Amino acid sequence: MLTACAGEPPQNIGIQDGRLTPCPESPNCVSSFETDEEHSIAAIAANLDQIERVLLGLDEANIVEAGDNYLYAEFTSRLMGYVDDVEFLYDRVAAVTHVRSASRLGYGDMGVNRKRIEAIRSAIVTN
């Protein structure tokens, strides 16, 4: 069930010039393409198959699009139904997956997007 907290799916995400869309200035987004401390997060040393397996085990994750080198999922919070958009872009040359996780609504996210990516990274390491 979608709530008013779900917001509208963003129209400006996806692969642009070989990269994921930059984060907005607000502190509710992390990306491995960003360099400032607030938004920067390391890419994940895994391929998209490994990441997809982790996402399939998460109740809050809904895979919207999955391609050869790109995966897009929506994460819905259990309590209020807020939706975050999470993208993965596999770099075959570097053998890492770049990531972007951003809240649709609000200004801050209390570190939720960063914690989510680190949890996915940890789940891959332990599998």
Structural class computed from helices and strand pairing: alpha+beta
How many individual helices? 2
Low-confidence residue ranges: none
- How many domain regions? 1
Work out the radius of gyration: 14 Å
What would the principal axes of the Cα set say about the shape?
A: globular
* Helix/strand order: EEEHEEEEH
| Distance from first to last alpha carbon | 31 Å
Strand order of the largest sheet: 3-7-6-5-4
Just give the CATH class.
Alpha Beta
Measured by DSSP, the beta-strand proportion falls in: 25-35%
Instruction: Say what the CATH topology is.
Output: TATA-Binding Protein
Proper CATH architecture: 2-Layer Sandwich
Report the helical percentage. Answer: 10-25%
Give the biggest beta sheet: 5 strands, antiparallel
Number of strands: 7
What assembly state would you assign to the polypeptide chains in this entry? single chain
* Arithmetic mean pLDDT: 93
Explain briefly what this protein structure is.
The chain is α+β, with helices and mostly antiparallel strands and 127 residues long.
